[in-house]
Each structure stands twice: as structure tokens, then as C-alpha cells.
Specification:
- By secondary structure, the chain is mostly beta strands.
- It is 7% helix and 54% strand.
- The protein is built from four helices and 15 strands.
- The chain has a 15-stranded antiparallel β-sheet that branches.
């Protein structure tokens, strides 16, 4: 897999959000509780929408949209949050690189511990599916992994970890509930994130606070700024710099993505059903 259609274009996942890995483990009796966190950031019915832009020959061009929806449901007899993320380019992008992604995350309603994750991705001429099933035997985190490759091959593996492991979606939901009030500029938080192939050596770096105004609107927000960094091939790569509202909701309003062939940006265009007042909004 080359850098263009592989690691770099995981920005479609990170829009999820992406997007925001600020979590601390909570010490409870069971492993599932340890891998969970109290949810104070979002509720069933939340709907976030975004526009996607590429820098094409020194011009920023709108190339697609993204949407994230959260609702209540049931899974294996327990109450859960079901969160869908869909991203897709338009005809302007399809001529360069077709992208259609759909992600699903199922987490415990009680404490947001991850239970199931699925990503179906069409990237260029490739289509593949990743699935993860989580369980928590003997205070460990067990992950069953399945990948349907773009060649139609089914690959299965199972791994067990003493520490908690997350996927791109569940870490986003967890991260939105983290308290940054005690963080200092430059602080680094390790982020163990897995897909159906391997565990990623990645972390989050806190860059402080900034004010951000959404282009074409009068909306301005106080934001926390973070960088998502991955170590690969002996080097550290900043994949995304993102801006989340400095309030209880921790909604991402802007993402800057650094790609091998250029730059991309994601801007919030709408939000509905948020749990708490948007106190970060500057009037």
C-alpha cells in the first residue's frame, strides 16, 4: 500500500472525527470499565456536518462532505450508542481519487467502552472492510479482527492486550469527554489505536488555545488545538491538526490535514442535537 492511498488518506477516518484523542483511563473494577469513561459531551440525536477541501494547484477547492450521527440502540442485549460517520468526495475529487467511506462505532451506553467497529472504504479503485469485536476477559482487552481486502480475501486474527485499545471512532467518542483544564501546552498523550491489521504507535500533542472563525459565516469559537502524530518508518509524522470547541461538547470545528501530495481542510457547517450550550461561541 502506498502512502497516498494508505496512511495519508486515513484523514477520512480521522474526521471522526477523528480527530481528538484526549483520554485518561478511569480505575474501576472490570477491564471494560477501565476502557470506558463517563459521557458528559454528547447525546442521542447529535448530528454534525462538515465540508471537505483540498488545496489544488494553490487554490482551495471544495471536494466533498462528511456527516456524523449518534443514536441510542441495543447490542448483545445492552444499551449502546451507535455512531455513524460517512465521508465522500464529489465529482471534482473523483477524477483524482474516488473516496467513499462509511464507519460505525458501537460503544456501551454506560461508559463508552468500545464493543464493535466497522469501516467500509472505497479509496481509488480499492474497496475494503475492517471489523473489530471487543471483549474484556480477565481484566484484559481482547480484540477479534476481520479484514475483507480489496482482492476479496478474508483475513482474521485475534489479539489480547493488558492495556485498553481503541479504534478511530471509539477513541474520538472517548476523547470528547476528556478534561483539558489541567493540560499544559506541549503535553503529550499516547493513543493506542488499532485497525484490522495492526496497532498504531501514535499520540496526541496539546498546542494550546486559539480563536477560530468559520469562513463565510459570522460564527467564531474559542478552541483547544491538538496535533495527532504517528511514528512510522523511523520518523514522526503530524497527520492532523484539529480545533475543538472549548466547552462541554468538544465539537471539532476545523481540521488541517498534511498529505504527501498537498493539504486538506475540514470545516464544521452545522450542528444539531448537541448536549450542552455552545459556550465557546463568541458573539
Amino acid at each position: 500500500m502506498n502512502r497516498v492511498n494508505g496512511k495519508v488518506l486515513r484523514w477520512t477516518v480521522l474526521v471522526a472525527f477523528f480527530i481528538f484523542h484526549f483520554s485518561f483511563l478511569i480505575g474501576h473494577a472490570s477491564a471494560q470499565s477501565q476502557c470506558g469513561i463517563e459521557n458528559t459531551a454528547f447525546q442521542s440525536g447529535e448530528n454534525l456536518t462538515y465540508d471537505l477541501y483540498f488545496n489544488w494547484q494553490f487554490v482551495w477547492v471544495k471536494v466533498g462532505k462528511a456527516q456524523m450521527k449518534t443514536s441510542l440502540g441495543t447490542y448483545d442485549g445492552q444499551a449502546v450508542y451507535r455512531t455513524f460517520l460517512t465521508t465522500g468526495g464529489n465529482s471534482k475529487l473523483d477524477g483524482v481519487f474516488m473516496m467513499r467511506d462509511t464507519l460505525l462505532s458501537i460503544c456501551s451506553y454506560k461508559d463508552l467502552a468500545p464493543l464493535y467497529h466497522r469501516k467500509g472504504a472505497r479509496e481509488g479503485k480499492r474497496y475494503y472492510v475492517d471489523e473489530l469485536w471487543y471483549s474484556y476477559p480477565k481484566n484484559n482487552c481482547h480484540v477479534k479482527m476481520h479484514r475483507l481486502t480489496h482482492r476479496g480475501e478474508h483475513r482474521w486474527q485475534e489479539k489480547e492486550y493488558q492495556d485498553c485499545v481503541y479504534d478511530m471512532m471509539s477513541i474520538f467518542l472517548r476523547a470528547r469527554n476528556f478534561d483539558a483544564s489541567q493540560m499544559k501546552k506541549g503535553d503529550v498523550i499516547p493513543m493506542p489505536i488499532s485497525d484490522a491489521r495492526h496497532l498504531m504507535n501514535s499520540w496526541l500533542k496539546y498546542r494550546g488555545k486559539e480563536t477560530f472563525k468559520i469562513d463565510g459565516t459570522k460564527e467564531k469559537f474559542r478552541c483547544l488545538v491538538f496535533s495527532f502524530i504517528e511514528h512510522e518508518d523511523g520518523k514522526n509524522h503530524e497527520l492532523i491538526r484539529f480545533y475543538v470547541t472549548d466547552d462541554q461538547n468538544h465539537i471539532p470545528v476545523r481540521l488541517d490535514m498534511f498529505l504527501s501530495f498537498g493539504s486538506a481542510k475540514v470545516y464544521l457547517t452545522g450542528y444539531q442535537g448537541v448536549r450542552s450550550p455552545m459556550t465557546s461561541k463568541i458573539k
